[in-house]
């Protein structure tokens, strides 16, 4: 009686070693650091650059903890955030504009622990510091973008079917298709009803011209809004991943808003610029039929756009060959003249469109149009009062015009960019995916690392005080068994920290720390039930060994019922909660599982080692 088989003792030992090893990296917090990376894609940062930066820091009397060369960058570590912030401008001036100096937090975990996949707990925004953005999607622009894409598709289909039309345009939220002959109207209506069913088709006549009006159904408009939110969520997550942020939060809030939290980000201007920028590309043919110098007004199927840098007007066809939505790969490089370029890879649909168009226009010119959407505040009159509203300002400019030497397919390059930094940023935006609609910042909050440190210290203090009071109570009330329960409590805390450190996506925030404090209080409940049962059995006159066995066996179902109900509550909070509620639910749920193991299996193993296999007259309980 009261002896575990060897395998159970080994199981407890293995779990204890696991908890110690994977909780250990939390003794090595991240260092504030500066990362030096070359602007040129694929270029490495050399030792000479790092030496130049270290020399500048020494002259500025800014102490450095450690420096190292990584695979393609250099890293300089500091002992505190103040030194890191003061060093950024010094290092940037020392290395020049050919290098990007970014502030981040560098891991400090020993190599032998990192090789095992161990690392510290990922801290949330309120503990680590960082930025919080609330962004709103411009749904009107999302609808306009869908109508524009549909208009281009309709033009392609009418041309494929050789249906002539007088005009195809987008006006006041409707697509207008004008025809001169009734048979053309019937043919076009058949295609529209078969392939564009999400549109209501109406007809009007004037001056022997029949016009078909296409407007979106209510269901189609809802689908567009849902798509805009989901596509923007995907693009934003990709952009955040490009920033290298650990455990970011990018989630929908309400019908038209998105919340972004970036723990550890200190260069908020860079993050805001990359996240909020709505940029795209269009590849369009130059109007080879008309001379722009001799034409003051653009024809119906063409428009003038300015050339970047010179402002010279370029006459372009309105038809878009492909847009940045079809880009599946983008990388930076340099052309034969040393100027920055972006290497583009299109998907299969985009490649076919590009091949079909360019094969017909060899020796003609194709332009790359850069489109940028920015929020703009305007004051408008509503109900006799001036109201400030945010509108989307669209800027279009030609960044490159090149002669098509041969048919292009899925892979080609674009040039005409101002700098390597712009090429790098454009490639990043194209890789991340175009936004379905522009967004603007509704709210921005910055949590400083010092505030995060205060939160950590306050949370740790509450944990230590709660932990200490529980330890004192258990020893004073249950004596030796209380000491055993305290060992299990420490074991439980180690396991909880270990699991929080290795679970992908688990982030510790202030509510999570509250969950840990609550877990510490709840962890001894099971042992209190067991020890109370043992006392009851002893008072009934049975032997100490039988009392121990009965105490654990008969209290098990009560402990299981109580913990399962609490675990179900934790799962419900995780499923329906968001943000802080999820953080609390994660730590609470993991704490319940680890406390059940340590309270039932862990303490039983220690009790068996202390009391098992020897005669007992009484128990210190």
Descriptive report:
The chain has helices spanning 6-23, 47-59, 81-95, 111-114, 125-128, 139-160, 182-195, 218-243, 268-276, 348-360, 420-432, 449-502, 510-523, 525-539, 544-576, 580-611, and strands spanning 31-38, 66-69, 73-77, 99-106, 122-123, 130-137, 167-171, 174-179, 199-206, 209-216, 249-253, 257-263, 278-286, 302-306, 313-323, 327-334, 340-346, 365-382, 385-403, 411-414, 439-447, 507-508. By secondary structure, it is α+β, with helices and mostly antiparallel strands. It folds into four domains: 6-25 and 448-611, Multidrug efflux transporter AcrB transmembrane domain (Multidrug efflux transporter AcrB transmembrane fold, Up-down Bundle), CATH 1.20.1640; 31-106, ACT domain (Alpha-Beta Plaits); 130-276, no CATH class; 279-431, Gyrase A, domain 2, CATH 3.30.1360. Strands 14-15-13-18-19 form a five-stranded antiparallel β-sheet. The protein has a four-stranded antiparallel β-sheet with strand order 2-3-1-4, covered by helices on one side. Strand 14 (302-306) and strand 15 form a beta hairpin. It is elongated. The mean pLDDT is 82.
Notable traits:
621 residues, single chain, 4 domains, alpha+beta, Alpha-Beta Plaits, 16 helices, four-stranded antiparallel sheet, five-stranded antiparallel sheet, Multidrug efflux transporter AcrB transmembrane fold
Describe the structure concisely for a colleague.
The chain is of the alpha+beta class and 621 residues long. It has helices at 6-23, 47-59, 81-95, 111-114, 125-128, 139-160, 182-195, 218-243, 268-276, 348-360, 420-432, 449-502, 510-523, 525-539, 544-576, 580-611; strands spanning 31-38, 66-69, 73-77, 99-106, 122-123, 130-137, 167-171, 174-179, 199-206, 209-216, 249-253, 257-263, 278-286, 302-306, 313-323, 327-334, 340-346, 365-382, 385-403, 411-414, 439-447, 507-508. Strand 7 (167-171) and strand 8 (174-179) form a beta hairpin.
